[in-house]
Write a structure and sequence with these properties.
By secondary structure, the chain is α/β, with parallel strands linked by helices. It is built from eight helices and 14 strands. Strand 10 and strand 11 form a beta hairpin.
């Protein structure tokens, strides 16, 4: 089995044909938004599901160019609903404007919510990305079945990247829309208090045992061997836990020291995200009794139990 890094390397050559409708199979199309970046890769993928009637999954960022591209792809077909995998603005920012244009309701797993309150002086890395004010017209629940244009779509609760994260399966097929939960080009950012490593790992395990094997993520290209890749991601996170425990034993007792030890060649622009991911692992290890947390004048320190 390839490592998560090796599998990600195989997916970084993806070219999305930004702004154009790309048919994946009959009844599933993709339009990629023009929001390339270090955390969005080639841009946010919006999916159109259906032929005569559509479900729009993740309308993407509040970008007029992307709205124009989506309306062209929709081509005046009725839109049954606008479904969100989660409420980060690169996925949900366009939802209100698309609703106004199409009349379609917004469906999600409720308003954006944090796993816990931010601690004193804790920097909430994704605060500006969180669409706290978006109120869905209908709340989708884990296990719910949606019927769009004769297609059965399952709602899978996959929290972790954030608390209201969902995936959507096309029942009777190998396809599942994984949002930011699983992406072939990179492992997702888990940034407390917005994200939870414990829930993320459980959600990975859930996808691994599901019957869906062809992952369609919200950033980057398809992952044809999705379950194999999800197992590699799970092993990668377990390895990261072990690296953190080893680092604590060697005296790297703060997040910056652990980041420097674990990611020695990481680009400076990505270090804040790496720091939040290390915090997520530390929260997970503390919850499982493997790490003790000590506060002090100069911040939090961590020791192995």
């Amino acid at each position: 089995m390839p490592s998560a890094a090796e599998a990600a390397d195989e997916s970084t050559g993806f070219e999305p044909d930004t702004g154009r409708l790309v048919e994946i199979v009959e009844g599933i199309g993709r339009v990629t938004a023009p929001n390339r970046g270090p955390y969005t890769f080639t841009g946010t993928n919006t999916y159109l599901v259906g032929v005569d009637e559509l479900l729009v999954i993740d309308p993407g960022p509040a970008d007029s160019r992307h709205l124009k591209a989506l309306l062209a792809a929709i081509a005046k077909r009725p839109v049954r609903a606008i479904a969100l995998t989660h409420t980060h603005r690169d996925h949900s920012g366009l939802a209100r404007r698309l609703k106004k244009k199409t009349g379609a309701p917004i469906w999600s797993n409720g308003r954006h919510r944090l796993y816990r309150e931010a601690r004193g002086f804790e920097r909430m890395r994704l605060a500006r990305s969180c669409d706290f004010d978006l109120e869905p017209d209908e709340i989708l629940e884990d296990g719910q079945i949606l019927y769009i244009d004769g297609i059965s779509i399952g709602v899978l609760g996959t929290p972790g990247h954030c608390a209201n994260h969902l995936s959507f399966s096309v029942n009777g097929s190998p396809y599942v829309f994984t949002g930011d939960h699983v992406m072939g080009w990179s492992s997702t950012v888990i940034a407390p208090p917005d994200g939870s490593m414990g829930d993320y790992l459980q959600s990975l395990e859930r996808l691994i045992v599901s019957p869906f094997s062809y992952y369609l993520p919200a950033h980057g290209g398809p992952v044809p061997e999705g379950r194999k890749y999800a197992r590699a991601l799970l092993a990668h996170r377990q390895q990261r836990n072990a690296q953190i425990l080893e680092g604590l034993e060697q005296g790297a007792t703060t997040v910056p020291k652990l980041v420097a030890r674990i990611y020695p060649t990481l680009k400076p622009a990505l270090r804040p995200a790496a720091a939040k991911t290390v915090e997520a692992h530390l929260d997970y290890l503390a919850a499982h009794g493997q790490v003790a947390v000590k506060g002090g004048l100069f911040g939090r320190r961590y020791v192995r139990r």
